[in-house]
Design a protein that fits this description.
Mean pLDDT: 91
Low-confidence stretches: none
Structural class: alpha/beta
Oligomer: single chain
Number of helices: 6
Largest sheet: 8 strands, mixed
Shape: globular
Strand order of the largest sheet: 5-4-3-6-1-7-10-9
Strand content: 25-35%
Radius of gyration: 16 Å
């Protein structure tokens, strides 16, 4: 049975986008070897990705491009290779390779995906994370705490209706100031 991992970059004050829905503050120096090895390792798996419409459109607009392949070849190859599941009420098709559009009931579709053998990751997609958190369908949460204060923006859990207690599983600190903090849903 597969697990679902939510992975998001957040600011010190808890936002994953700024007040203009911009996430460019989370981009790192392309010459940061330590960080790039970590990111490259994350994209080398054979799991799949879950996206909401907005994040899917952002990712699909970058990762299949020659620019992405030149900047981060391992990550681009992994992102393009992985299976992608897109939840949207408004899209009528998805063109990025290995993408599947899902329009039926979110809870039903995610339970079907979890019953398969592969793990799935949610990158960004704040509204998707909030909905699946309320349904208790996310098994792990990983946050990259960035050394920046945004002052305002949108939180990963904006819209969550019930309190959620998580169990800390690991912490890793990087020379660039990022701290990756991992939690899991208690069994």
């Amino acid at each position: 049975m597969g697990k679902i991992n939510a992975f998001n970059q957040i600011s010190l004050d808890g936002y994953f986008t700024d007040a203009r829905n911009d996430m460019s503050w989370a981009h790192k120096d392309p010459n940061d070897v330590e960080w790039n090895e970590y990111v490259g390792g994350n994209s080398s798996g054979d799991g799949g990705l879950l996206f909401g419409r907005i994040t899917y459109e952002l990712m699909a607009g970058f990762w299949p491009t020659p620019q992405a392949a030149a900047m981060m070849p391992e990550v681009a190859a992994g992102m393009n290779r992985m299976k992608k599941y897109v939840f949207s009420r408004t899209l009528t098709e998805v063109a990025w390779q290995n993408s599947t559009l899902l329009k039926d009931d979110l809870a039903t579709e995610v339970r079907k995906l979890k019953s398969g053998p592969s793990d799935l990751a949610i990158l960004g997609s704040g509204s998707l994370i909030a909905q699946l958190t309320d349904l208790r369908l996310i098994d792990q949460y990983q946050f990259v705490m960035n050394p920046i204060v945004l002052g305002s923006g949108r939180t990963t859990f904006q819209g969550v209706k019930e309190r959620l207690s998580l169990r800390h599983t690991s912490t890793r600190t990087f020379k660039n100031g990022n701290v990756v903090i991992s939690y899991e849903l208690p069994k």
